[in-house]
Amino acid sequence: MSNNNEFTPPTFTFTNSISKNFALPMAEIVVDKIVFANEAFTQLTGYSHKDLEKMNFSGLLSHSVRDSIMEVLNSIHKVSLFSYTTIAPIIKKDGFDTLCEIKFDFLERDGIKSVLASFKEQNQSKGINLSPLISEKLDSIKRLSASLSHEINNPLNVIVNYLYIIENTKDEEKRKGYIKTIYQEVERIAGILNWLLDFSSYIHGEISAVDVNEEIKRAIELVENDFSSKNISIFFNTCEDCIVPFTEGQLQRAILNLLLNAKDAIKENDRQSKVVINVTKNEDYIDIEVRDNGIGISPDNLERIFDPFFTTKSFTNNRGIGLPMTHRIIESHGGKIYVDSILDKGTSVKICLPRRRINGKV
């Protein structure tokens, strides 16, 4: 694309592929000149490839951020390779600007340093007048779609950037490190897609009479060593003859998710770290309560805890899928789940399961 004889972007298959097919806008910059741009970048800015050949990258930046961003980009000649992410307005050909999250990866190829920039537009919601029921359902779909897009695009961005870097670095140790990261990000995407298939499908398997106490005990056995190593105590108050109709293994899975969430919520404090599980029954329902004395959940966040991929636990590997999956399991078996929480006091999750006669058992 560039007429600069001293530097020409590679014509490898992968570069051509991301130029034509990858949806994320991308551009490579050498000393403020755009030497490579994919189709998505031209669509974002409104400029053609020929337009971009004649422009400085700084000309696309809003005056409010231009100096600060270019100062960072120019530092490539003074420091070792690194990445930099910021949020800034990009000025389009029509004169309007669009707010983008911009990730800069600093590269070096054949002794020439360049910057690979990828852009992600920040979405702005637009209101639509619909009936409350339809609006609520569409809002749920929109949140799920946005969450999935975010969760999958993040590792995809890493993969694309690192593949580009791998093509353009001769350092074998760095290449091995980038390849390892790519494998990890591929596994992350696979995990998200497997979860989505599981979440969207019906719970398969035969419904049978399940002993609630036994299911909870099995879930506790899976985490008790981990809890013990973190000085978290589990107290389990059982209930006699607590039998419910359930798919084998699914109640254990639901309780395990709640225990893992409780572990993440508990931080070191002066009081004893603990999780209490109470099982009680009445004529129509069996109630399971899982209560912790962790950090709690704010009232605003309580409304979103069943949204897939929503999580407030940035200090853990929690991906925000435990509670939505538990909610899916319980409701698919005719049950209900309720959450109460007080900041800095703890959280209580209550499951109500209907009692019905299965194979002669109640």
UniProtKB/TrEMBL annotation:
Keyword Endoplasmic reticulum: no
Residues annotated as domain Histidine kinase: 147-357
GO function term, MF aspect, one: phosphorelay sensor kinase activity
Record flagged with keyword Nucleotide-binding: yes
Entry keywords, A to Z: ATP-binding, Kinase, Nucleotide-binding, Phosphoprotein, Transferase, Two-component regulatory system
CDD domains the UniProt entry points to: HisKA, PAS
Pfam families given in the database record: HATPase_c (PF02518), HisKA (PF00512)
Gene3D superfamilies, sorted: 1.10.287.130, Histidine kinase-like ATPase, C-terminal domain (3.30.565.10), PAS domain (3.30.450.20)
Chain ranges passing through the membrane: none
Highest taxon in the source lineage: Archaea
NCBIfam families listed in its UniProt record: sensory_box (TIGR00229)
Protein name: Sensory histidine kinase AtoS
